[in-house]
Specification:
328 residues, Rossmann fold, 6 strands, globular
Length: 328
Amino acid sequence: MSQLLDVLLLTALPASGKSEVRKYLASLTADECRDGFHLGPTVQLDDYPYVHLMRSVSQALLSRGEDGVFFDSDERPMKEPLDWGALVHLINEDFDDLVLHRRPEPASAANWMLERFDRARIRVGAPPAFRQMAGELRAFVAESIRKEAEELLAGKNAGAPASLEGKTVVIEFARGGKQGSTMPLAPPYGYRYAFSQLSEALLSRSSVLYVWVTPEESRRKNVERADPGKAEASNKHLSLHHGVPEAVMLGEYGCDDLAWLVETSDRPDTVRIEAHGKTFHVPVARFDNRVDKTTFARGDPATWRPEAVQLLHDGLAEAFAKLAAARG
């Protein structure tokens, strides 16, 4: 049996092709994933649904003339930069739930989510937002996000398998910094900071697949993919069609530090991460998508051209082989 990857951190700038890669992999059989990509049946984690819920919280608060907590408007970056780290701690919790076979069943999914936001913020040194909020206002926020929180919780529990044995956990997220930033990016921006917030259990088991495009191409594809109608129609595939605001693209995704991390690591083809009092060398492979190989996968698989599929398949197979060799 081929060496299977345990945890895959699927990273890139926005609109680089991460979601299309996931969609392509989902179109393959279990044997094809195992033999061609060293992947077991995948279990998916993603921090984007939490960002979407944070924006819903802010929309509700702003509609009342209150402070938005997370965002000042739908077009602006995060008010509290440490929330980039808080998102990682939400992923840590989700991974722990998978490992420990926990399926939360809170009385209120909305209050459960507000408590999780506060707990994650405390872990990165940011002030909790909801513990001190007036009861009536907190109840208003909870009711405003009730349906979305219930859907998020239901999806989280439905996606949790009885066992992770023989499976690959795929965790998708994007990180970056302000356009024109020098390296290294200062915390809490970039992958160096985000990776350092991952739990020890995740860091010890992870490999990184980076979908490589330039920041300019990321911005172009972000505009191209934006389709609010399709984004609203299906939370499951939301990231295939949502558009990131321009101010966020320039202020938080104008560059990233993955190449810098690889270049400055003391071991080839790894990122060196200092965390939990230890040093981790996490294997990394870059899938070169600077000449687009993934956009076709947004469409119906019945329309995929064989030559486009083969180009994507070969590029991914090369990257995954490198990761499997490093883990082996």
